[in-house]
Specification:
about 10% helix, two-stranded antiparallel ribbon, 11-stranded antiparallel beta sheet, about 200 residues, mainly beta, 2 helices, globular
Length: about 200
Amino acid sequence: MIFKYRFVVLILFAFIFFSCKKIKNCPAFNEQDLSYMPYKKPDTLTFRNSVDSIFEIYIQNINTSDAYSFECRDLKMTCPCINSVEILTTDSRRITPYVFLKMEQSDVSEMQYFYYLVQNFNFEFDFRNELPYIDQMGHMEFAGDILIGNRTYNKVVIINNFDMSPANISKVYFNKTDGLLRFVEKSSAMVWDIVN
């Protein structure tokens, strides 16, 4: 009798689990959300150091995600659609295109991650959800307003590379509105500032 009861419960559970799938159609990246991206094609980002050397990043292309469908198996049917935009670049040291910045967002949460690649240093930040808690994150700092050249940049975040990455970057300064503002090399402590 117990075996029969367990078998019925197992069949019922399997039926519920396998019948709780639904095809979810996800939209393409909304072009209006490009307003969250600090770069446009064909921007050139120019950085200068204290000995007047120049480093440039060239925006080659902006790729947005297409519409897609997938089978949602979540019992609550809260499978997220993730759409994204990628900023494809080259720079004055690399001619092979790479993804300099990728932004991903979800339709079921306020998540909006910005993934950067600066001189082989990868980092990510969600301005909406992580900025209020930045003081609890050991490798991040909120710098507030900083002056570079003759311009003040607001709500600047600093990511510290405490040897999490072998890249030759010790710090990166950036904000949501303007993107990458400054980076500091690990080996030489050379500071590279955006030219405004």
